[in-house]
Write a structure and sequence with these properties.
233 residues, alpha/beta, Rossmann fold, 37% helix, SAM-dependent_MTases_sf, S-adenosylmethionine-dependent methyltransferase activity, Methylase, Methyltransf_11, transferase
């Protein structure tokens, strides 16, 4: 039998919400309140908008954050249509205990997009969304206490080689304050395979002074994706 796979050309611009981030990354009040937060490859996620509304100092960066913000919103809306169709086709492969069903999953994406769009158009939001792409980001060393990367690294392991992943993770570490953390989820590719160079990557992290560990994630959905990578700088 042919292995099921979520087919994707290029990197999707997806809309995930604050609660999903909390579950993906095991976020606690102490993590969120420790200092400035950065969401890397944030796409159309409402995490930054919702975190700011809760009083946290959150920022987002993405290669698509250039030009007219309305185009970012339009791309995100298009992706909701496309991804929903893909999920319905692969429905039996996923764990729906968090999202319940494809209709509820889509409704969550639409709510996130609405919050994202509203924040983008606000005075506060204009300063919080920056253009930038790994492995080099436009921030000074030691700027953030918590750096998050959702559904980019490892997920696109078939499109980006080991050197890219290594340089990207080291760049995330560079952005952290001493004692800060990097958290990355998921650790599987779009083929739902474990990242094959994780040991080599963790060696590079250790050589740079980072302390890495695999932690339990609490967002059941992708088959077998129950861990996130935490790196303490």
């Amino acid at each position: 039998m042919k292995q099921l796979k979520y087919e994707q050309v290029g990197v999707a611009i997806t809309c995930r919400g604050f609660d999903e981030y909390v579950h993906m990354f095991g976020l606690k009040e102490d993590d969120l309140g420790a200092g400035p937060l950065l969401d890397i490859a944030a796409g159309g996620a409402s995490f930054t908008a919702e975190a700011c509304a809760r009083g946290y100092d959150a920022h987002a960066v993405d290669p698509r954050y250039a030009g007219d913000v309305e185009s970012w919103i339009a791309q995100s809306a298009d992706e909701i249509e496309v991804s929903t169709s893909k999920l319905i086709a692969l429905r039996e492969a996923f764990d729906w205990s968090y999202y319940k069903d494809p209709a509820n999953h889509r409704a969550g994406r639409e709510r996130s997009l609405e919050l994202f769009a509203s924040h983008l158009r606000s005075l506060d939001g204009q300063a919080r969304y920056r253009f930038g792409q790994l492995p080099e980001l436009p921030f000074e060393q030691g700027t953030f206490s918590l750096v998050l990367c959702s559904h980019f690294l490892f997920l696109y392991a078939e499109q980006f080689d080991f050197n890219f992943h290594k340089q990207a993770v080291l760049e995330m570490m560079r952005l952290c304050k001493p004692g800060g953390q990097v958290r990355i989820y998921p650790l599987l590719s779009l083929s739902w395979n474990a990242y094959p160079h994780m040991d080599e990557l963790l060696k590079a992290v250790a050589e740079r002074g980072g302390q890495a560990e695999l932690m339990p994630a609490k967002l059941p959905f992708i088959p077998g994706s129950d861990l996130f990578l935490k790196i303490r700088v």
